[in-house]
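The freezer alarm interrupted the setup, so I double-checked each line after restarting. Inputs confirmed:
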Amino acid sequence: MNLSKFIRQNILSLAPYSCARDEFKGNARVFVDANENPFSNGYNRYPDPLQIALKEKIAKLKRVRPSQIMLGNGSDEPIDLVYRIFTEPQKDNVVAIAPSYGMYGVCADINNVEYRKVVLEEGFALNADKVLAAVDENTHVIWLCSPNNPSGNLLNRAEIEKILKGFEGIVVIDEAYADFSSEESWLNSLDKYENLIVLQTFSKAWGLAGVRCGMAFASEEIIGYFNKVKYPYNINLLTQEFVFKKLDEVAEKEKQVKILLEQRARMSAELSKKSRVKKVYPSDANFLLVEVDDANAMYKELADREIVTRNRNNVTLCKNCLRITVGTPEENDILLSEIQ
Ligand SMILES: *Cc1c(COP(=O)(O)O)cnc(C)c1O
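Predicted 3D structure, all chains:
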């Protein structure tokens, strides 16, 4: 792959900021290089800009190399960086499936990059040929999300593979909901596809939406560009330490996922019985896309009862749909009794 062909011109030649922590690594007796307050309180020093200790732990868990990982302030940071690294505003374009996660389009708008939507097929299925047909010589990125938000379904592996093979530029597969599906992660294909970026996050199954930590996995070369463009200290020390500690609690995460999957099956079955529910779409994620008689009305009626759902009525293919996250058993009880 000729990666440089897809890099924004000024980023190719960018000399990145060199911070004090880049220039000297290791142990020293005296640190007077970064204008910090020297009196120790645990947080008076700048954090590791490349989060090596945390990445080594994540690498073991995910069976990748630390050099294949970029950590961001949520997945939102790598999503924005993809535009800033791989697209020239007002010239290049990206292709994305629709419906999908809203941030891909918002970041395109912020970066002044054309966002081409390819509508999914019946059952929110991916049609690789349709996606590839939207590509032209200025297409630098294709956005895929599997399991997809807001539809909840996994995208077909063979169709994704066709896109990875048929498109020379960057293919992003957002796996924010991977922990809730039994399908193999695309992380295992990183060495096979040099144009692949996989996104995962601590915000969903790991229960850490509040700490803001997302992961991008890609070739060492692509990660090198992320490191060059990101803010030097983008992951603060509190987050690095907290996520490091939480990574020891895989069993707890899996226990919670198991409960949520049971609750997902229960919610799907119970919601389907409600007279105002027209359809509950199958889900490989921790939410259900539910078609109701009148989504705007039901959204409001539920909100009046202090139950907040996500109204997707105005989203492509989601007319009269609410997106409902699987809650605790108690939260789900309340929703089921109020939705009558
Ligand atoms: C929730 C979600 C994310 C996670 O975003 P963070 O910034 O990591 O919290 C990423 N992608 C999709 C599709 C999501 O639904």
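Quick read of the result. The pocket of pyridoxal-5'-phosphate is lined by residues 74-76, 101, 145, 149, 174, 176, 201, 203-204, 209, 214 (CB under 6 Å).
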